User: What shape does this take?
Amino acid sequence: MHQGQALRDLERAFKNFLTIPKRGFPVFKKKGRKDSFYLEGSIKIFQGNYIQLPRIGVVKTYCILPNCRVKNVRISKRADSWYISLKYNFELDPTEKIGETIGVDLCINTLATCYDGSKFANVKAYRQAKKRLVRHQRAVSKKVIGFLRNATQTKNRLKAVKKLAKAHKKADVTPRRPQLACGTRTKQ
Assistant: This one.
């Protein structure tokens, strides 16, 4: 992590602790928990999905990146994957409206009901992901923590924790309330 950014984060944590009543004392970030670091400097994007980072070099990304000047990046690890967040200036071009406006009612039983009575079903993907989480969490709880009081975790427990982290990552990606599919429909 960039040293200046680490000090700014620490200062903000202490300010929050002293000014906001419900905030607690700043907690040290242990290695392996929410691993992330901050980079700023000469960051360049080229060929769509390659980014040049200071001290790391060229990194290929999964998505096509915007062709603009990047101010800084934060690289974070989640389960077994690394993610990059970019900070850049973006000017939004206003778009023209095509077609008429329709009324949409967001419901509990269905995802949405449009003005003409057509309904869109809810996605139940999160319920299935929740079942997987329960199974993986039970597997972790049944593993031996360590043989001695100060021992580290056993390898089987570490493997189970990694599987649980992957399941959490997948559950967070599944849409609990996806964007409306009928937003671009026009009157027939």
Remarks:
- The first helix runs from residue 3 to 19.
